[in-house]
Each structure stands twice: as C-alpha cells, then as structure tokens.
Specification:
The complex is a heterodimer of chains A (103) and B (412). Chain A has helices at residues 27-37, 43-57, 64-68, 75-81, 86-94; strands at 2-6, 9-13. With 103 residues, chain A is mainly alpha-helical. Chain A has one domain. Chain A has a two-stranded antiparallel ribbon. In chain A, helix 1 (27-37) runs antiparallel to helix 5 and helix 2 crosses helix 5 (86-94). Chain A is globular, with a radius of gyration of 13 Å. Chain B is an alpha/beta fold and 412 residues long. Chain B has helices spanning 11-23, 132-144, 164-178, 200-212, 256-260, 300-318, 373-390, and strands spanning 2-7, 29-35, 39-41, 60-62, 71-75, 78-82, 87-90, 95-97, 100-103, 107-109, 126-127, 148-154, 185-190, 216-218, 223-227, 232-235, 240-242, 245-249, 252-254, 285-287, 331-338, 341-347, 356-360, 364-368. In chain B, the strands form eight sheets. Chain B has a five-stranded parallel sheet, with helices on one face. In chain B, strand 23 and strand 24 (364-368) form a beta hairpin. Chain B is globular and about 65 Å long. Classes of the chains: A mainly alpha (103), B alpha/beta (412). The A-B interface holds A 61, 63-66, 69, 75-76, 78-79, 83-85, 100-103 and B 156-159, 162, 192-193, 197-198, 220, 222, 224, 236-237, 266-267, 293, 295-297. Bound molecules: flavin-adenine dinucleotide (FAD). Flavin-adenine dinucleotide binds next to helix 1, strand 2, helix 6 and strand 21 of chain B.
C-alpha cells in the first residue's frame, strides 16, 4: 500500500496500482490511469466504468461475461476498448479492486 | 408433518440426506429427495477414462444404493421452484410443498454456449471429459490417434474441479510417453486465467511442473468460437490456437430449472451466503455444492466440508436459533501429475494453497504442493472414500474448517 498522486490528488493504491478506496475516484483520475495503460477514454469507456462501479457497489462479482451482457458492450467490444486484459484494466481505471477469478 | 425437500441427489444432496435422516425425528419430519437420473456418477473418475485407467463401469452405481431408508425418493425432473409459495413443481405435474428446501442440483456443461463447439467435429476431433459419454468417446479416439497438436482448453470460469484440466495434460504426457509417441504429440493448455492456476504459490509450482513436462500454456485466452474448417480456437481479441485434437471444458452452468425459477445469476448459479450457505433471498432455502455461487472451488471435497456447516445451520434454523456455523470455503484437491505421482492443495476463501503436510502437521502422510507417490495413492483411494464414506455422510478424519497447522507461509 502506498500514497500516489494521480491527476493532482493523493490516493491510496496497492502495489499493482489499484485504488484501495473506490470513493477517492473521479473522472480525472480515470483518465490519468488509462493514459498510463495506454488507453484514451471515450464516452463508451465511461459507460462501462459506471457499470463496473455500480455492480461493485452492489457486491456483485464481476466477470467479462457479465460486462458482455450489460447492454453497453458485447465481449468483443469490451476487448476492443481495453485491449490485452479488459477486466483487469477496466477495473483499475474504474478505481475498484482487481477482480479475482475464483476457481 | 414438517417437510424438508432436497433437489438433486448427486454428491451434495446424497450427503445431506444421509446426515439429516439420522438427526430428524421421522414422526415429525418427512425428508424427500428428487433427482432426474437413476445413475450416480463418480465424476472425479471421468478424468481417468480417456487414458483407459478407468472404464464406464468403474464410475457408475445406482443412486438408490446411497439414499438411506426413511428418505422418500422421487425420480423426476424438477420443472421449477416457486420460492414465494414454498413449493416445487415437478415435470410430471406433481407439486411438492416444503418447510425447508436444499438446492443441490449441481452444474453441468453447456457446449451450445460456445459457437462452433457442438458442430461437425464434436466427438470426432473435439471432446469433453466432463461427461461419461465424452470421456468414453475420447478413450476410443486416443487408442487410434497417431499424434499431432493436442489442445486442452477451458472456455469459461467458474468450472467444476479447477485442477482437472491440469491433471488431464499431465496424464496425457504420461500416456503418450508410455505409448512411445510423445515426440509426435504437442500438448498445449489454453486458459482464460493469467497462469496455470488462480493462486500464486500453486501456480508457480504447477507452472514449473508443466515446463518440465514440455507442456505449453496459452494464458489469458478467452475463447470466442471454434473454427471447425481450419481447426483452430479463436479468442475475443483475435488470437488463434490451432489443434488437431481438442479436449475442452465447455461453459459450466447451473441447471436451467434455476433460470426457470428466476433464482440464478447469469450462469444459473444461486446467490448464496458464502458463510451460512443460506440463499441470499429466501430464509428457508439453503444451497449446497456446485449449484451455489460461493467463491470457492466447485468440488466434491468442498461440498463435503460445506455439508457439515450446512447440517449445523439447518438444525439451528429448525430449532429457531440464529445460524451459528460459518463456512470458510475450505477446498482440498489432489492433483494427478502423471507417472504415478500427485500433488495436493488445501485452501479456503482467504488463504491460498501453501506447502506443508496434510492432514497431520509435520507427518502428513500427504505432502502439500509436492509431487509425490503418496499423493497419487490419495487420489486413487478417494474413489473408495467417496462411495463408502463421503456419500453416506460419515465423518472424515479431516476438519471442515481449514487449518494452518503443518503449512509453511511462502513469499517470493
Ligand atoms: C472430470 C471431473 C473431475 C472431478 N474431480 C474431482 C476431484 O478430484 N475432487 C473433487 O472433490 N471433486 C471433483 N470433481 C467435482 C465433483 O464431482 C463435483 O463438484 C460434485 O459432484 C458436486 O456435487 P453436487 O451434488 O453439487 O452436484 P452433482 O453431483 O453433479 O449432482 C447434481 C444432481 O442434481 C440433479 N439435477 C440437476 N438438475 C435437476 C433437475 N432439474 N431435476 C432433478 N434433478 C436435477 C442431477 O441429475 C445430479 O444428480 C470432478 C468433476 C469432474 C467433472
């Protein structure tokens, strides 16, 4: 755990850079984290981020499949928005914990 | 007369029936168990069928052998649950009322969920080993197969027995080595996970083993479809893996009955309190085994540990006390690694698999996260334990709660 200044605000992150407190998040922080990953955020991205934050808040486990059924994007579009690791990157940008795949 | 109804007479339902019949007064309680099939399969044995180690007869027994006297048994498909009315509708039109309901309808594979899976190559060059039919068909194929690209792929999480695909590739390495054609067989494991397993310490141990055995791993590969003409897997981000022979774990889902009852999540698993095993929505409904959405492995060992917790909580509920027992997600899996050896992992919601000995600290006899002969014997003995102890709801000499005794904390 460490303090990090993102978009001029001090937030707590874990050693992989995920926000520890989702309430410290805002849109500028999202833009900044996305930039570090190499993603430029569009409205579509923000719709997905809002969906993720809402589901997280409700305590629902997040999966790629669930995002694919959100009505916002299908799985292919989700991959296109967050190439290389849609769920781990979108979660990081959304300021929520990295989803753990449980098997 | 009070009624306790169990849906599903597989591993979990059968264990609960055996435990409850002993504890509940049969003058006051009627226990009923419903299942659509008459045959009980020892599913862990499916893994060994493709390699000719087991055959169909080694994994089948009549379900009726395991239901205790005093329990009413109904063989019928469940059409739906009407939880607000405390009743269950059967396919044949009968209606069952209940005071308490245990859902134990498990999970099954749904190949139809993946485009191209159940098409012209199905059971010709594409197989599953999660059904007895698939495992037997693959045994016939392996007998005459002369080599090529063998791919073991996982379509979606969660799936039952998360270590089974790993065991499959280890046993394939063993099988084709003994057949003398290992040099002609290229083995690849394709997984949506970031590595061989979800938990870091176990992944490290297993990855090393895979490397030693010359088995490739294609990780973070999320299958979109299967191209039958060009014989390749295609991922959502347009990566491709070619195959000559594909073994696959299709999408695992809860029974469609759960969806008809509007009680499931997007994979038909029932939202369940991970500690009490009570339905999130209905106080008089409990969920045991693969049918629930609790975040631990879908495995017989988990159902066994959870059944002890569920038993206590049902007794609490019936006797009007707050639910006192809490499940910790304890899972314990033997991992066959080929050439007569095996590994063992033991973990729960909060603690990942660690090295050490099990069940006795320092003594074992089983070595955690170690590749040994004795662990393999553990797996082989598991079949006997399953039929004679587990299903009968008897106690195993292992605690329901995971213990840290005998384990070593690791950092790397
Ligand atoms: C290849 C393979 C290897 C495995 N290896 C291991 C292992 O090594 N160790 C381990 O611990 N576990 C292992 N498992 C997992 C283990 O078999 C399951 O986790 C366990 O059987 C789950 O028990 P259950 O009662 O929840 O489901 P099941 O045993 O599958 O029972 C569900 C029952 O519900 C019935 N049912 C479903 N829907 C309806 C309906 N609508 N109406 C009526 N009846 C219905 C079904 O007919 C079935 O009998 C393995 C599984 C597989 C496939």
């Amino acid at each position: 755990m460490a303090d990090k200044v993102i978009a001029g605000k001090t937030v707590q992150v874990n050693d992989e850079g995920y926000l520890l407190d989702a309430s410290q998040w805002d849109k500028e922080i999202a833009v900044e984290i996305a930039k570090e990953i190499g993603i430029e955020l569009t409205d579509k991205h923000f719709e997905v981020l809002a969906f993720l934050r809402e589901k997280k808040e409700a305590g629902e486990p997040l999966t790629i499949r669930k995002v694919g059924k959100s009505g916002i994007v299908d799985i292919k579009e989700f991959y296109a928005l967050f190439p290389g690791g849609p769920l781990k990157y979108s979660s990081k940008i959304a300021g929520i914990p990295k989803p753990v795949s449980c098997v | 007369m009070q009624k306790l109804l169990i849906l599903g007479g597989g591993t979990a339902g059968t264990m609960m029936a055996n435990k409850l019949v002993k504890a509940l007064d049969n003058e006051e309680w009627e226990i009923t168990i419903v299942d659509k099939y008459k045959t009980h399969y020892y599913q862990p044995g499916f893994l060994f069928i493709p390699f000719g180690i087991y055959n169909r007869k080694d994994v089948e027994k009549p379900k009726a052998n395991f239901f205790p006297p005093g329990v009413k048994v109904i063989f019928s498909d469940v059409n739906k649950i009407e939880p607000d009315e405390n009743k269950v509708l059967l396919e044949d039109g009968r209606v069952l009322h209940y005071n308490y309901l245990i859902i134990a309808t498990g999970t099954k594979t749904v190949p139809e969920e993946t485009p191209g899976l159940k098409e012209k190559l199905w059971y010709k060059d594409i197989f599953d080993f999660y059904t007895v039919e698939g495992a037997c068909a693959l045994q016939r194929k392996f007998k005459q197969w002369e080599g090529g690209k063998l791919v073991m792929a996982i379509t979606e999480l969660p799936y039952k027995c998360p270590v089974a695909p790993l065991e499959f590739v280890f046993l394939a390495d063993d099988y084709f080595t003994k057949k003398g054609i290992r040099d002609k067989v290229d083995i690849t494991l394709v997984t949506p996970l970031p590595g061989a397993f979800t938990k870091p310490v176990a992944t490290k141990m297993l990855s090393e083993l895979l490397k030693d055995k010359n088995i490739n791993v294609e990780s973070e590969f999320y299958i979109e479809s299967i191209n039958n003409d060009e014989k390749k897997l295609v991922s959502y981000d347009n990566k491709e893996v070619p195959f000559d022979l594909l073994t696959i774990v299709p999408v695992n889902m809860g029974d469609p009955m759960i969806a008809r009852s509007e009680m499931g999540d997007d994979l038909n698993f029932v939202p369940t309190n991970k500690h009490t095993l009570q339905s999130e929505k209905y106080e008089n409904i409990f969920v045991l085994g693969d049918a629930s959405n609790i975040p631990t492995s879908k495995a017989g060992s988990v159902a066994h540990f959870a059944s002890e917790i569920l038993f206590d909580n049902i007794m609490d509920a019936i006797e009007g006390r707050p639910l006192s027992a809490k499940f910790d997600g304890h899972a314990n899996c033997y991992i066959e690694t080929g050439f007569g050896k095996g590994a063992l992992i033991d973990f729960n919601y909060d603690t990942e698999p660690l090295p050490g000995t099990f069940p006795l600290p320092g003594l074992g006899p089983f070595g955690l996260l170690k590749n040994t002969k004795i662990n393999h014997y553990g797996k082989i003995m598991f079949r006997w334990i399953y039929w004679h102890i587990l299903l009968k709801g008897k106690e195993l000499p292992v605690e329901a709660d995971m213990t840290m005794a005998g384990k070593k904390k690791v950092s790397f």
